[in-house]
Design brief:
Distance between the termini: 70 Å
Shape: elongated
Strand content: 35-45%
Largest sheet: 4 strands, antiparallel
CATH class of one domain: Mainly Beta
Strand order of the largest sheet: 3-4-9-8
Radius of gyration: 24 Å
Order of helices and strands: EEHEEEEEEE
Number of strands: 9
């Protein structure tokens, strides 16, 4: 096992030093807990809110922002544009109730979210559109015509 550990002048490589938990700061602990609890669902999400998964893609026509928002309806969402900042916000309220002979079980999950995106200068803010379909919010941000790539013909003199 000791042959697999890199040695330099009789010492171990600094990259392989053991991490001491007492040297961690609060941000390290926050990251650790975020990694542990991510993906466990809204039932275990903190009461302060949740953060939906978002994909951002670009093509020749513009940008597409897709947010996974299962269980939300149009009335639960707000999409706004203030200057060059696009904001997606909303509130998730989910209550499940199960009743059977001799017991009743009610489980509630809720949370508020807000995601902001700074748009590049080459977008057309007047033609931004948003569509909610099957729990996925898709915001389309078109580029202005001048910003779209084009081929420039080369002529000989």
């Amino acid at each position: 096992m000791t042959n697999l550990i890199p040695w330099k002048l009789g010492r171990r490589s600094p990259a392989l030093r053991a991490v001491r938990p007492f040297s961690w700061d609060l941000q390290d602990f926050d990251r650790l807990f975020d990694e542990i609890w991510s993906g466990f669902g809204a039932g275990l999400a903190p009461a302060a809110g949740f953060s939906p998964r978002v994909d951002v893609s670009e093509d020749e026509a513009g940008y597409r922002i897709s947010a996974e928002l299962p269980g939300l309806e149009e009335k639960d969402l707000e999409v706004s544009l203030d200057g060059d900042v696009l904001t997606l916000s909303g509130e998730k309220r989910d209550t499940r109730e199960e009743a059977s002979e001799g017991y009743r079980h009610v489980e509630s999950a809720f949370g508020r979210f807000e995601r902001r995106f700074r748009l590049p200068a080459e977008v057309d803010p007047e033609h931004v559109s948003a569509k909610l379909e099957h729990g996925v919010l898709t915001v389309t941000v078109p580029k202005v015509e001048a910003a779209r790539p084009r081929t420039i013909p080369v002529t000989a003199s």
